[in-house]
Amino acid sequence: MKHFTSLKHLSRKEIINLLEIVSKVKKNPSAYKNKLKDKYIGLVFQKPSLRTKTSFYVGALQLGANVIYYAPGEVKIGERERICDIAKTMSGYLDGIVVRTFSHKVIDEFAQYGSIAVINALSNLLHPSQVLGDLFTLIELKKDIKKIKFTYVGDGNNVCHSLLYAFSILGGNICIAYPKGYSPKSEVLAECKNFAKKSGGSICLTNKPTIAAADADVLYTDVWSSMGREKEQEQRKKVFKDFQINDTLLKLAKSDCLVMHCLPAHRGQEITDSVIDSKKSVVFLQAENRLHSAKAILLSLLED
Fold this sequence. Notes:
This protein is of the alpha/beta class. The chain is about 45% helix and about 15% strand. The protein has 2 domains: about 5-125 and about 290-300, Aspartate/ornithine carbamoyltransferase (Rossmann fold), CATH 3.40.50.1370; about 140-280, Rossmann fold (3-Layer(aba) Sandwich), CATH 3.40.50. It is built from 13 helices and 9 strands. Helix 6 crosses helix 7 (about 160-170) and helix 6 crosses helix 13 (about 285-300). The longest helix has 20 residues, at about 285-300.
């Protein structure tokens, strides 16, 4: 594994191997505290971040690496200079780079022109590091990916895309409920349907959240308006009003259903206080596991 830019580039075995590393790192973090000694990692972020920045920053430090953080105004990707020039320059200084950006083409160009490991810390298209942590959370809670009904309710966004790749590659069953006009990208769906055919997984698409929630083992949601779509917020509140994970929707799921959210949450919009603060909610375990999954990604790419 040279880069971590999209789960679609990984095989089922490679994803499982990554998840095994996450488990080992979480169980015995002290065993890995010097694994990346003398490595230098750059964090180039165009978008604000709490969990992703903290998990990769702290994770790298806990592995013994040195970290440089570049705020949005410092590098000005594609404005101050071309991405190819930034990638080549940073390849002379660093061992790996973690990029959080808008266009996914930025991630691909860093991987194309640089000679160091590139990690996708979020793009408008994908959020693979988030989903790796989510998968580990499910496994940690003894949820067999192949034996559960996993339901995502909301916008067909970057998190949704990465969940689709993960479940279709691993042979899981995923159901996506979204308002008309807000489906996952057609090209992502086409690729995932091909993965599902090979893995034995299934993909369900519906515009009715009640159908998606029925007998679900997991209910997952994300904000209605992702970063960069703030101008659509008022319109989206109207469109997505029936796509809220609340007590009524939760009652349709299985009695031991888990509730997941990648955070940050807009409480009272895509999820209610009563659900996110309930005993069925595992959102803060998800957030914690982002640290362990970030460390697993860094180790897989950079450990000698």
